[in-house]
Design goal:
717 residues, alpha+beta, Immunoglobulin-like, seven-stranded mixed sheet, five-stranded mixed sheet, 20 strands, flat, disordered N terminus
Length: 717
């Protein structure tokens, strides 16, 4: 049996080597680049879907691809894609990216140099968490060392439109390309979410059901794009391959259905074009039938129906909106423009699969971009419709004014009475206003007193911390001074005796012997060691004192009112010096500081924020662990292009949702009476708001709390 296996592998390698002489070799030389290999592959169609790997290797029916992006159409067949890669770059790690998230199955086979056959399986049939790389696109490792040439066989199968954009590159540029796609679709979904919430708000304001239909259309269109681009599988149902596989059929059909219903409502086709409305109803019926086919397992039929009905429906809606506009409905103008933009985007998206347009991030995302622009323009169309209705209402109001003018005489007579009442009421309001102003002044004074009280509390905490921190090194210095003075006196005495010996009569050897005996008597070697130790101790104590004073100087800028560029890490270090006495040698402090740019801020006020939050964290840790060890305070910093992030995390008692909601309210505190004023976090919140920043709180009862402070690097007034 092993002999047959060796013969089979040898035959495959020999056959592969003979064919590679006549087939194009993808020579990868551009380190740091990503290249398209669509025109350098060969494709074999297996209509039975039963072809084994050994048979696929032996097959002579491979046909070279003719476009940069092979388009395999809609088919139940299985396709084998063969390509040869020679690595002439400086990188031993290459990746193959298959930019088609909706492929059901994709398996990459490699015949290694030692005869082993390796395979990597991807596709929507697997759970998202089982993928080698965390992305909606399918990414494979190409284990080809520098200077080696390997032949690869990619087996793919999908029930929907199968387009194969294939790219090879180093790991870093491939991942950067995938990240760029994430950014583009992130912007798209952000626009869709904003439009959804905006129009939902307008619906609750106007109660116009056109907005409700439009919100439903935006939601389903977003789900459709998320399913087709693979983001729905990645973020919404990563553990359900069945939903991922069927969502690409279901949501586009449901989105098309919602679009037809919205068109019918927005253009008021029942009144403006009743005959054409019947065609809309037929299109709606076809979408419903396509949706039902999915649940009966007729996915290929459903997909073909959906694509055909979408193409016909899009052109018909374009014609319908032009007819409605011609018949006097001016709100159809924006609709016509929006729908045209969507059709242009869809056309470019389809033509790029046939090589008319180049395949890149823009053309692969053009459908999402067109959809986003369409959604924005349709919002304008709805707003224009409301404007038209408002003008009609104003016309009706003008007609009503004619009737109002007939009652003008009565109104004028009533004005005299009303003016008297207004004067009386104005006097009452003036009196009330004066009382309110007085109350407001009292409240402001009370607020100032409370803020000063909180500052005094912070000052007391600062004083206690500094006194405790400075006391230890100063005690160390003072305790070393007395023995140092004693040792120095001994050295002086010894020097005096040596001087006497040197002045005595006698030989040099005798004097040297007496001096050596004197050194032994004073234990001179130990004396030197002890003096060095005492001086080092005094130096360490003074250095520690200087460090504490420096931290105090950095921290104690509470009353600075001018914006300055400051080092956030330095402020955190100085704050930790102040609160060091609260650690009690039982709480571990983990510092994860990143290199940060200087931040334009009020540094003293930020230090007060850090001290309040760190003190609260230490209080929560002590409340949980009491006198035991195990408490940990983690402080980390990071920076983006525009903001600096500070995370203060503890493993203390945590808090429930009710406490989180009240956290920044003035006077709210969970501490015992006399332990806190309830103003620390309120002042901290206002300080961060003053910096145009934000505070995010993550907490779990019994597990700990994390405060995330986000501050802009450049302060915006």
């Amino acid at each position: 049996m092993n002999y047959l296996k060796v013969v089979l592998i040898f035959s495959l390698l020999l056959l592969q080597g003979l064919r590679s002489l006549a087939e194009p070799i993808i020579s990868f030389t551009q380190t740091g680049k990503v290249i398209s290999i669509g025109r350098q592959v060969s494709i074999l169609e297996d209509s039975s879907g039963q072809l084994k790997f050994e048979a696929a290797v032996k097959s002579t029916a491979y046909k070279p691809a003719t476009t940069n992006v092979p388009n395999l159409g809609v088919s139940n067949s299985t396709f084998w894609v063969k390509f040869i890669v020679k690595n002439e770059s400086e990188n031993d790690r290459l990746l193959l990216e298959l930019d088609q998230p909706t492929i059901d199955q994709a398996t990459l086979y490699t015949i290694e140099a030692d005869g082993r056959i390796t395979e990597q399986a991807e596709g929507e049939f697997k759970k998202y968490g089982e993928r080698r790389y965390n992305n909606q696109n399918h990414v494979f490792d190409l284990h080809v060392q520098q200077g080696e040439t390997h032949t690869y066989y990619l087996k793919v199968k999908s029930a929907e439109q199968m387009v194969l954009p294939m790219f090879i590159g180093d790991a870093k540029p491939v991942m950067e390309s995938l990240m760029n796609k994430d950014v583009i679709f992130g912007i798209f979904f952000g626009i869709m979410l904003v439009m959804l919430l905006y129009n939902l708000f307008i619906y609750f304001t106007t109660k116009d059901k056109g907005y409700l239909y439009y919100v439903l259309y935006i939601f389903l269109l977003s789900l459709s794009q998320a399913s087709l681009s693979g983001y729905a599988f990645r973020f919404l149902w990563p553990n359900s391959p069945w939903i991922a596989e069927n969502s690409v059929y279901l949501f586009p059909a449901v989105a098309g259905l919602a679009a037809m219903v919205f068109v019918k409502e927005f253009l008021q086709t029942k009144m403006v074009a009743p005959k054409l409305t019947k065609v809309l109803n037929v299109l709606i019926g076809i979408f419903v039938f396509a949706i039902l086919c999915i649940f009966f397992g007729l996915k290929l039929l459903s997909f073909n129906l959906m694509q055909l009905n979408t193409a016909i429906g899009s052109l018909f809606v374009l014609y319908l909106s032009a007819v409605v506009l011609k018949r006097g409905n001016k709100s159809a103008l924006f609709f016509l423009i929006a729908w045209s933009v969507l059709l242009i985007g869809a056309t470019v998206f389809v033509l790029k699969d046939f090589g008319v347009f180049p395949y890149n991030n823009f053309t692969s995302s053009i459908l999402a971009i067109g959809s986003a622009i369409e959604v924005v323009l349709l919002s304008f169309a709805l707003a224009n419709k409301i404007s038209i209705l408002r003008k009609e209402r104003e016309t009706a109001q003008a007609q009503a004014m004619q009737a109002v003018e007939e009652n003008a005489r009565i109104v004028r007579e009533q004005n005299i009475i009303l003016e008297a009442k207004v004067t009386e009421r104005t006097q009452e309001l003036k009196t009330s206003n004066e009382e309110l102003n007085k109350t407001l002044k009292d409240l402001k004074e009370a607020e100032m007193q409370l803020v000063e009280s909180e500052k005094m509390a912070s000052l007391g905490q600062l004083t206690a911390g500094i006194a405790h921190e400075i006391n230890n090194p100063i005690n160390f210095v003072t305790s070393n001074v007395k023995p140092l003075k004693r040792d120095v006196q001994m050295v002086i005495d010894m020097l005096n005796q040596i001087e006497e010996i040197s002045l005595q009569d006698g030989t040099v050897d005798d004097k040297k012997q007496k001096i050596d005996e004197l050194k032994q008597e004073y234990d001179f070697d130990y004396l030197k060691t002890e003096i060095d130790y005492l001086i080092n101790g005094i130096n360490e104590g003074s250095s520690r004192t200087a460090e504490i004073v420096k931290g105090l100087r950095i921290f104690s800028r509470l009353d600075e009112d001018d914006l300055k560029k400051a080092d956030i890490n330095e402020g955190l270090e100085s704050t930790l010096v102040i609160v060091n006495n609260q650690l009690d040698n039982r709480i571990d402090v983990i510092k994860q500081f990143s290199e940060l740019p200087l931040v334009e801020c009020y540094p003293g006020k930020l230090n007060q924020v850090f001290m309040n939050m760190i003190s609260n964290a230490l209080h929560a840790i002590k409340s949980r662990y009491k006198e035991d060890k195990g408490g940990a305070l983690t402080i980390s910093t990071s920076a983006s292009d525009t903001h600096v992030l500070v995370s203060i995390k503890d493993n203390g008692t945590g808090m429930d949702e009710n406490t989180k909601k009240k956290l920044f309210e003035p006077f709210f505190t969970t501490k015992d009476v006399g332990e806190g004023t309830g103003l620390g976090l309120s002042i901290a919140y206002n300080t961060i708001v003053k910096h145009n920043g934000s505070i995010t709180v993550n907490s779990e009862l019994g597990a700990g709390t994390e405060f995330i402070i986000e501050i802009p690097i450049i302060h915006q007034n």
